Amino acid sequence: DLNRFLVYRKFKMTTLQSILLSIRWGDVLTSIDLTEAYLHIPIRPSHYKFLRFCYNDQHYEYVALPFGLASAPRTFTKVLAALAAFIRDTPIRLQCYLDDILLLSPSSSQANIDTQST
């Protein structure tokens, strides 16, 4: 089990309380789930050897961030935070939790625009 050899680093995640506090009366909420989000984060090639496994006598290695890796939530949260910071420079309001993005729009028509823009 690789996780027992990893150093766990605490990190700040969005809380339900902070999400609730960001919602304004009349907001239209749009939820976006990033499908297989971790698999979009590449692993440094020199680290492939640490992410090998055997299945049916075949050897494999991850080349992208695997689900179940103890450091994966922190890594993905940091990547998504950088993207969210870029989007927050626009009028779009959003909250992120792991691979879920919540858009907060003042109307249905603006929600459609925000969703297409994101």
From TrEMBL:
Ranges where the Reverse transcriptase domain occurs: 1-118
InterPro entries tied to this protein: DNA/RNA_pol_sf, Hepadnavirus_pol/RT, Rev_trsase/Diguanyl_cyclase, RT_dom
Pfam family, one: RVT_1
Enzyme Commission code: 3.1.26.4
GO molecular function: RNA-DNA hybrid ribonuclease activity
Domain of life from the UniProt record: Eukaryota
The family this protein is said to belong to: Belongs to the beta type-B retroviral polymerase family. HERV class-II K(HML-2) pol subfamily.
Protein name: ribonuclease H
Organism, scientific name: Micrurus lemniscatus lemniscatus
Organism lineage: Eukaryota, Metazoa, Chordata, Craniata, Vertebrata
